[in-house]
């Protein structure tokens, strides 16, 4: 039976590139995609347990290490791999301590990412990334709602309030309320500062 692999990342271009990379290396694999944590959990309900779950840390719905621990407990036989821009050694250590099998930085070459995935699937416990030199910032507050994280992610992509409203099918007025509450929650003075905090947090 073909192995089942879930690729969970909210950036469509990276997710597509990773999917093609894994397909090339494991042509017989059955690969599914998810763009947020709810979609991952939906793929786990009532289905065959995945052979491998590849997960980004900067991910809608994923707000704390406790959720990574819960995934490990729920999927004891699944190979769990984080592929992320994170380069904070302490945070990476926490990921591995949560029981994940490997950590791969997004800033290494696609061929290296693919080979690292294969090695981890074969049982090697692997941490592979290139430090970016960026200073780590404070983590995002765990109390942010899923909707606030969605708004924050779109702010980080440079979207205007009108564009965010269209993307989330809500009114611009509601977006303004979310933005105001985000600035207070993050303790930052501007959208730009919120975007920087989001980009560096995970």
Descriptive overview:
With 202 residues, the chain is α/β, with parallel strands linked by helices. The chain has two domains: 4-128, Response regulator (Rossmann fold, 3-Layer(aba) Sandwich); 146-201, Arc Repressor Mutant, subunit A, CATH 1.10.10. It is 49% helix and 13% strand. Strands 2-1-3-4-5-6 form a six-stranded parallel sheet, with helices on both faces. Helix 4 links the parallel strand 4 and strand 5. Helix 6 (146-156) packs across helix 8 and helix 6 crosses helix 9 (191-201). The mean pLDDT is 85.
Features:
202 residues; alpha/beta; Rossmann fold; Arc Repressor Mutant, subunit A; 2 domains; six-stranded parallel beta sheet; 9 helices; globular; Response regulator transcription factor; EvgA-like; Tscrpt_reg_LuxR_C
Short description:
This protein is of the alpha/beta class.
Sum up the overall morphology in one term: globular
CA radius of gyration is 17 Å
CATH superfamily of the largest domain: Response regulator
The fraction of residues assigned to DSSP E strands is: 5-15%
What's the arrangement of strands in the largest beta sheet?
A: 2-1-3-4-5-6
Q: What count of structural domains? A: 2
Overall average pLDDT = 85
In the predicted model, the low-confidence regions spanning at least 5 consecutive residues are none
Distance between the termini: 35 Å
CATH secondary-structure class of the largest domain: Alpha Beta
In helices, the fraction of residues equals 40-55%
Strands, total number: 6
What's the number of helices?
9
Give the secondary structure arrangement, pairings included.
Blueprint: E1 4-8, H1 12-25, E2 30-34, H2 37-44, E3 52-55, H3 65-74, E4 79-84, H4 89-97, E5 102-105, H5 110-121, E6 126-128, H6 146-156, H7 161-168, H8 172-186, H9 191-201
Parallel strand pairs: 1-2, 1-3, 3-4, 4-5, 5-6
């Amino acid at each position: 039976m073909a192995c089942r692999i879930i690729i969970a990342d909210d950036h469509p271009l990276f997710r597509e590139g990773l999917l093609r990379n894994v397909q090339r290396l494991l042509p017989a694999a059955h690969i599914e995609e998810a763009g947020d944590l709810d979609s991952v959990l939906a793929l786990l309900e009532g289905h065959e347990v995945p052979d491998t779950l590849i997960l980004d840390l900067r991910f809608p719905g994923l707000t704390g290490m406790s959720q990574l621990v819960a995934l490990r407990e729920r999927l004891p036989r699944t190979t769990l791999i984080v592929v992320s821009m994170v380069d904070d050694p302490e945070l990476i250590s926490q990921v591995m301590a949560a029981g994940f099998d490997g950590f791969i930085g997004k800033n290494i070459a696609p061929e290296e990412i693919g080979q690292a995935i294969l090695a981890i699937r074969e049982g090697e416990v692997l941490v592979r990334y290139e430090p970016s030199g960026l200073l780590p910032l404070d983590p995002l507050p765990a109390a942010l709602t899923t909707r606030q994280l969605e708004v924050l992610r779109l702010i980080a992509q440079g979207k205007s309030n009108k564009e965010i409203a269209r993307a989330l099918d809500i009114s611009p007025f509601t977006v303004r309320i979310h933005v105001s509450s985000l600035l207070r929650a993050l303790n930052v003075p501007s959208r730009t500062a919120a975007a920087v905090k989001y980009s560096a947090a995970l």
